Amino acid sequence: MSLFETSVYAAEAAGAPPDAGMVNLLFLGGFILIFYFLLWRPQSKRRKEHQALIGGLSKGDEVVTSGGIVGQINKVEDDFVKVQVADNIELRVQKAAVGATLPKGTLKSLDEA
């Protein structure tokens, strides 16, 4: 017997269970469902709501842009809206930059505060 010689006695190799492919498919399906319900579906829903918001913009709506500018829409164009932010001050803003519409009268309550 050599000093560096080692003997390895391995047990009989345990093979994968016969239904290992099915378990792997279930895990893959579970990950796909989690991805769908936690990431893709909510993002798609938000995108549809924002598209509906942009499509429904009209003159007189009070809006907040994604940059935080608050104003009232004076004119709706193809890709832009003109937002009045103060007396005699209008800004041309892309429709996609409109973050939300406000209830009527919000601008008056902000001016009073």
List the helices and strands and how they pair.
Blueprint: H1 20-55, E1 62-65, E2 70-76, E3 80-86, E4 89-94, E5 98-102, H2 106-112
Antiparallel strand pairs: 1-2, 1-5, 2-3, 3-4
Describe this structure as you would to a colleague.
- The chain has helices at residues 20-55, 106-112; strands at residues 62-65, 70-76, 80-86, 89-94, 98-102.
- It is α+β, with helices and mostly antiparallel strands and 113 residues long.
- The protein has 2 domains: 19-55; 58-113, SH3 type barrels (Roll), CATH 2.30.30.
- It has a 5-stranded antiparallel sheet with strand order 4-3-2-1-5.
- The longest helix is centred in the N-terminal third of the chain and has 36 residues, at 20-55.
- The protein is elongated and about 95 Å long.
Features:
5-stranded antiparallel β-sheet; 26% strand; alpha+beta; SH3 type barrels; 113 residues; 2 domains
Could you give a short description of this structure?
By secondary structure, this protein is α+β, with helices and mostly antiparallel strands. The chain is 38% helix and 26% strand.
